[in-house]
Amino acid sequence: MEHTAQHTDVPALRDTETVIATEQLNVYYGDFLALRNVNMAIPERKVTALIGPSGCGKSTLIRCFNRLNDLIDSFHLDGRVTYYGQDLYQDVDAVQVRRRIGMVFQQPNPFPKSIYDNIAFGARATGLTTDLDELVERSLKRSALWEEVKDKLKTNGLSLSGGQQQRLCIARAISTEPDVVLMDEPCSSLDPLSTLKIESLIRELAEEYTIIIVTHNMQQAARMADYTAFFNAEATEDGKRSGYLVEFAPTRKIFDQPAQEATRNYVNGQFG
User: Fold this and answer.
1) C-alpha distances out from residue 139 to 152, 166, 202, Å
2) CB of 42 within 8 A of CB of 245?
3) Taking the alpha carbons of 161, 165, 166, 168 in that order, is the dihedral positive or negative?
4) Three-state secondary structure along 140-167?
5) What sign does the CA torsion over 179, 52, 39, 6 have?
6) Distance (Å, rounded) from C-alpha 230 to C-alpha 59?
7) Cα angle at 69 between 84 and 38, to 5 degrees?
8) What angle (nearest 5°) sits at the alpha carbon of residue 156, between those of residues 152 and 159?
9) Residue 192: which residues within 8 A CB-CB, separation 6 or more?
10) In 44-193, beta strands by DSSP E
């Protein structure tokens, strides 16, 4: 999807409770409606979990938040995605969006570079003028990795364990000083101990950042999310699955007193 009009900068952090909001958001791949009528407001400096069965549009949604779907030729949307009130699809530079809204993927994906260069990459790429040594140390400390790697910063990031690699990717994501960090199933490929470390880290990071996490693990959402959005999907005539938001509320309400029967059935394990 191309946006050729003159760009404006993405607004910096403001004193407001809503960071990202969607209004009647419909997401298409060609003629296929992948996600429909999503209305939600993501609160600032909280952990928001997106749960639901496969194919319900969770990953599609968060990729709208930092415009990664732009890289798919058939993608287009209607409705609005706003960041501190500014429409992210109206004359906004996607590079600036991705600096403000970082991303951590399902599989740890360090660059084949040193630990140091993995962290410094974002600052160099976006032209941040800062002390790189200080930036690297601060990012690694925030991602609870500094003590484990401070004596081997020139070592290739791919030499780290899976859990360490994912924390390195988190450090890389926060190195550009974003407001929001998106995480697409960041623990799905990790062992239980590494998963607990990442979950603990996410709770700590929520003191400084807004965290939006996609997870298939309902226990994980219940443990660490402040708010939870449940998505479901319906089969279309051609056999594809079209996703929609069923319910979005504080996590305890979603798991203990859901307003919708479908939510209750899902969190009780009756389908998934």
Assistant:
1) 15, 13, 14
2) no
3) positive
4) HHHCCCHHHHCCCCCCEHHHCCHHHHHH
5) positive
6) 13
7) 55
8) 90
9) none
10) 47-51, 75-83, 86-87, 101-104, 180-184
pLDDT digits (tens, 9 = 90+) for 79-98: 999 999 999 999 899 888 98
Q: What is the per-residue pLDDT across 3-42, written as a single tens digit (0 to 9) for each? A: 333 444 444 444 458 999 999 999 999 999 999 999 999 9
Residue type, 114: S
In DSSP terms, 229 is beta-bridged to: 50, 248
Rounded to 5 degrees, φ, ψ at 68 are: -70, -25
- The CATH superfamily assigned to 18-267 is P-loop containing nucleotide triphosphate hydrolases (3.40.50.300)
3-class secondary-structure state, position 114? strand
Sequence-distant (6+) residues with CB within 8 A of 157 are 110, 111, 112, 113, 114, 115, 118, 165, 168
- C-beta separation of 49 from 213 below 8 A: yes
Decide if 86 contacts 16 (C-beta within 8 A). no
- For residue 66, give the 3-state DSSP assignment: coil
Length of the chain (residues):
272
Count other C-beta atoms under 10 Å from residue 121's C-beta. 15
The DSSP call for residue 120 is: H
Regarding pTM above 0.85, the answer is: yes
Q: What angle do CA 40, 45, 47 make, to 5 degrees?
A: 65
Question: Which of 201, 208, 260, 249 is CA-nearest to residue 226?
Answer: 249
